[in-house]
Amino acid sequence: MQIKSKKQPIKSKSKKSLNKNYFVHKSSYVDEEVEIGTGTKIWHFSHILSGSHIGKQCNIGQNVVIGPDVTIGNNCKIQNNVCVYKGVKLEDGVFCGPSMVFTNVYNPRAEIKKMDQVMPTLVRKGASIGANSTIICGTILGRYCFIGAGAVITKHVPDHALMIGNPAQQKGWVCECGEKVDDHLKCTKCGMKYKKKNGGLEKRSVNGFNNL
Ligand SMILES: CC(C)(COP(=O)(O)OP(=O)(O)OC[C@H]1O[C@@H](n2cnc3c(N)ncnc32)[C@H](O)[C@@H]1OP(=O)(O)O)[C@@H](O)C(=O)NCCC(=O)NCCS
Ligand SMILES: [Zn+2]
Asked: 93 in ligand 1 pocket by Cβ < 6 Å?
């Protein structure tokens, strides 16, 4: 009997899978009209719904649902038990912690159809979203912002802002490397310097930073 490697991609007759260079665990479902980039891995019991685009080198954990019609950039990491619903867009390098929750209808009712009222959520490049946090739809999470575990995001989040609590409040700034930025807007770890721009932070120099 032939034993397949666990890392063997599942066989599918769909056109896109002919040159498949990504991995989908055999317990997961990928619907028609889905694009998955090179090097992406989709682990156990997950479901990618039609019309979704997932970039290169992403890691999609266990029990994850994506779509329909969702776009996810390159190098994203989506931990276990996350649903990325229609209306949500993730740019490159976004981290979604385990069991964090996106929403897409602001005031749902079981007895009234509201899928025509889906509100968009945009998660910008490099943002990290902590475990068990909730993102109320209609918000933009800025570049490299950091959402603490369990936070509830109700408003737009500035670039590099650290947000914690329910409702989430800004408690400082976070560098691209994930460490805090001090009162002089300098990273306490890698030395990257920032300046204020459009309510958020923007890099002032590239000195001392070679991590990405
Ligand atoms: C937010 C975080 C990065 C810590 O940031 P920090 O500024 O270094 O926080 P500190 O540990 O210095 O704590 C500062 C205060 O905030 C509180 N705090 C820290 N994280 C918090 C959170 N997520 N929610 C509410 N309060 C929090 C601390 O209890 C402390 O309160 P105190 O001043 O009353 O004692 C971290 O707690 C966190 O939430 N990380 C996300 C982890 C995660 O979800 N990982 C997913 C992959 S496993
Ligand atoms: Zn840094």
From this structure: no
Contact criterion met (CB below 8 Å) for 143 and 129: no
Which domains does the chain show, CATH number per domain?
A: 20-106+115-185 (2.160.10.10)
Whether 148 lines ligand 1, by a CB cut-off of 6 Å, is yes
For the CA of 162, the closest atom of ligand 1 is: 1
Ligand sitting nearest the alpha carbon of 211: 2
> Could you read off the pLDDT of 142-190 as tens digits, one per residue?
999 999 999 999 999 999 999 999 999 999 999 999 999 999 999 999 9
Ligand 1 contact, 73 CB (< 6 A): no
Q: Which of 164, 173, 187 to mutate to test the pocket of ligand 1 (most atoms within 8 A of CB)?
A: 164
Contact 119/135 with Cβ under 8 angstroms?
A: no
Beta bridge partners of 162: 146
pLDDT confidence of 19, banded at 50, 70, 90? low
Sheet of strand 161-164, all strands in order from the earlier edge strand to the far edge: 23-24, 41-42, 59-60, 77-78, 95-96, 128-129, 146-147, 161-164, 169-173
pLDDT above 70 (res 211): no
Three-state SS for 194-207 is EEEECCEEEECCCC
Angle at 94 (CA atoms; ends 201, 38), nearest 5 degrees: 135
165 C-beta closer than 6 A to ligand 1: yes
> Across the strands, what pairs with 109?
112
